[in-house]
Amino acid sequence: MTSNHSSSSLETFLDQSLSDLKSKGLFSDIDVLDQANGPVISINGQKKINLASNNYLGFVTHPELIKASEEATKTYGVGAGAVRTINGTLKIHQELEDRLAKFKGTEAAIAFQSGFNCNMGAISAVMNKNDAILSDELNHASIIDGCRLSGARIIRVKHSDMKDLEEQAKEARDSGIFEKIMFITDGVFSMDGDIAKLDEIVKIAEKYDLILYVDDAHGSGVLGGGAGTVKAFGLSDKIDFQMGTLSKAIGVVGGYVAGSQKLITWLKSQARPFLFSTSLTPGAAGAVIKAIDLMEQDTSYVDKLWENARYFKEKLQRIGFDIGQSETPITPVILGDEKLTQTFAGKLIEQGVYVKPIVFPTVPFGAGRVRNMPTAAHTKEMLDEAIKIYEKVGKEMNLI
Ligand SMILES: *Cc1c(COP(=O)(O)O)cnc(C)c1O
């Protein structure tokens, strides 16, 4: 066992903070998968039906994506060799961005190394301390951090509450103290699976001259035939920033913004992760291009995802669980109590269904749930087996 140096103040901090986290039940050990994060996973040699990934379309293990990644690696090498603005822009990056723009219905696109750093970079490249950002209270952590980094005034808006959005937008506009005002929202909210009311949002934005930024991490590959929430609403020409991730439905890694040529030109000259962090690997870029090919050529992946999601939701509801108001494949089983949620998830995992309990502070206190993500890669047999285990554990615990 090696022993690393640590200063006594660090040691004290870590000891106290870790025990504090543990005593609050906010610390969890990380499970290690023996093989790929597919529809069935293996942990310590034990197989579990996997309902915890974001691998919506099953692309993580798709043979054609793997092949495309290998081919791009052979042609361009394992790394890009530099940041994009020095000489790390390879033809395959250019091709990726052209394909993303076309797929999203915008003039141009910029790719980042992850969705998280895309939000960090893109928001702060445009917004600054003279501006205000209206932000839905359930927005993703990377949006919250990106907004903070920008230095703009952050104004929380009640979740999907159009009356509150309009009031806050009016107040910010009337104050006359902000140069620019942005509204930023998830396209699909990852904990409840509800969809942002983009049609109403666009109307309010037009009235108060708001910049619109939609983070479609959970809408891309899922809604609008795969092209996302904005496409599903037919609003591709009304949203300034269509941000998305390449790590969820697309199955690889990376993030992007699709928008006007002028916006993308600005981001490519100002977004700090683009300027100061080495670009996506050629293998990742190649696999993503193949994923877009597949979605464009063939609707069966998205169709299968929805078919499985509907099937799974209907059965869960029929055996008596509260699955909330999701409008997408994200399927919460809402239990409420934190401890109960943890125990329930633990038993499901023990019996062979891998799920994650989600409790306060990720969701409001008393709104604990087990989140399920059926994917296109699951078979009916896998979903039936998962339902059987849900029913068994639910009855044992007197929940249904
Ligand atoms: C997952 C997620 C991100 C981050 O994407 P990564 O590519 O995993 O870094 C950003 N926004 C939302 C809404 C997400 O769900």
From TrEMBL:
Pfam families assigned to the protein according to its UniProt record, in alphabetical order: Aminotran_1_2 (PF00155)
CDD domains named among the record's database cross-references: KBL_like (cd06454)
Entries under Gene3D superfamilies matching the protein: Aspartate Aminotransferase, domain 1 (3.90.1150.10), Type I PLP-dependent aspartate aminotransferase-like (Major domain) (3.40.640.10)
InterPro entries according to UniProt: Aminotrans_II_pyridoxalP_BS, Aminotransferase_I/II_large, AON_synthase_class-II, AONS_Archaea/Firmicutes, PyrdxlP-dep_Trfase, PyrdxlP-dep_Trfase_major, PyrdxlP-dep_Trfase_small
MF (Gene Ontology): pyridoxal phosphate binding; transferase activity
Keyword field contains Transferase: yes
Record SUPFAM superfamilies: PLP-dependent transferases
Domain Aminotransferase class I/classII large: start-end pairs: 47-388
Cofactor(s) in the UniProt record: pyridoxal 5'-phosphate
Keywords for this protein: Pyridoxal phosphate, Transferase
Complex and partners: Homodimer.
PANTHER family named in the record: CLASS II AMINOTRANSFERASE/8-AMINO-7-OXONONANOATE SYNTHASE, LD36009P
Protein family membership: Belongs to the class-II pyridoxal-phosphate-dependent aminotransferase family.
Protein name: Glycine C-acetyltransferase
Record organism: Vagococcus elongatus
